[in-house]
Specification:
Shape: globular
Oligomer: single chain
Distance between the termini: 31 Å
CATH superfamily: Electron Transport, Fmn-binding Protein, Chain A
Order of helices and strands: EHEEEHEEEHHEEEH
Number of helices: 5
Length: about 210
Amino acid sequence: MTLPPTERTTVRLDDRAVYDREAIYEILDEAYYAHVGFVSKGSPVVIPMLHARIEDTLFLHGGPASRIMRTLKDGREICVTVTLLDGLVLARSAFHHSANYRSVVAFGRPTVIADLHQRRAVLDAYTDKLVPGRRPYLREMTDREVRGTVVLSVPLDEASAKVRSGGPVDEPEDMELDIWAGLIPLALTAGDPIDDPLMLPGIPRPDHVDGIGR
């Protein structure tokens, strides 16, 4: 399904524009965090936040005392962006250096999730997004913990993605220059897990922890 581009989500370069909903969701799901922009007391503010997606809705969460949650509970409009940097593109001239990336920009008005059961389900989705398979190993969240967390839902009705891939695009007259050009791939990778020194002895490391990022 394609999201119809709006004035705010239309990508200037058509060959980099992506309006396919599933492609947009793949980028959102791969990214660990988003930047959330809004206006507070007349000034623009951008806050990095963990996020989770369930079907056609993006969810944000935080403590009730945090500025962003206190501000956004009134339903004011926000802009959410994520970016995955895939590589550096080195051309034969400084002008044509670039980067390969996948990014999403979404606009919407957040709504506070009041229902505790829905709030709990969203928080469980957060856990499994960060580390797939983690949730069944944990104790249940207490009602106090759930009540002490604000969860906002943002409908993904106005969004687009922008993608740049491939190698450098140089001027034709530069192609014969004796200059190296190409790609330097970049990726976010997980290191080896580090056991908590306060953990009880003899607890094996579960597969979902050992296998993250591999």
